[in-house]
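Data card: per-record layout.
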Amino acid sequence: MEVLPHPGSNKPLLLSIGLKFWFRLKHHSAGPDSVGVRHFGSKVVAENCQSALYHTALMRRYFLVAIGGGIGSVARFVIAQWVFATPVWAPLSILVINVTGCFAISFLNFVSDPSGDIYLGPRGRLFLLVGFCGGYTTFSAFSLISFIAARQGALADLWLNIGLSNLLCLFSIWVGAIVAAPFPHWIRAISRALRS
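The structure for this 196-residue chain is written out next.
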């Protein structure tokens, strides 16, 4: 039994409700300004609609980033293959990708307002800056963060970002190589054990 004020009356109305409705009533209280079950029901429907709209908007953002990232990754692969075909210098393809990616993210960031309301809009910024540029090269984001820190005079942030990124990334590569070294032996041993 639950007591709710009746619409148009100050007297409480006793309601017999089932287990499912009881659970929803306990966890989605209509609050002290409730005017009855109809108000409560519309509040629950409104909350469910708000939640659905939020999740739909969130999925659209993920979709924009995923599509932009896919296009950026394909562009990186195509350019890397094209540059790699010219045997000038082995790391040239990565250098070209990083430099062009830095130009792209800088141009796109500064041609639009940081709030995302001018030219590109928030969805365009997500698609291009986070999706495309993130799929094309993550070095561009690192460089943009460093440039903004230098521009704002945050020299400690600038050098910490540059120093820690380089040192920790090289350290992580070294640790990854050490951790990965025994894996082929373990996989061969496990596959031999499974076959016998």
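Known properties of this structure: Residues 37-84 form the longest helix (48 residues). Residues 61-176 form one domain.

See the next section for split statistics.
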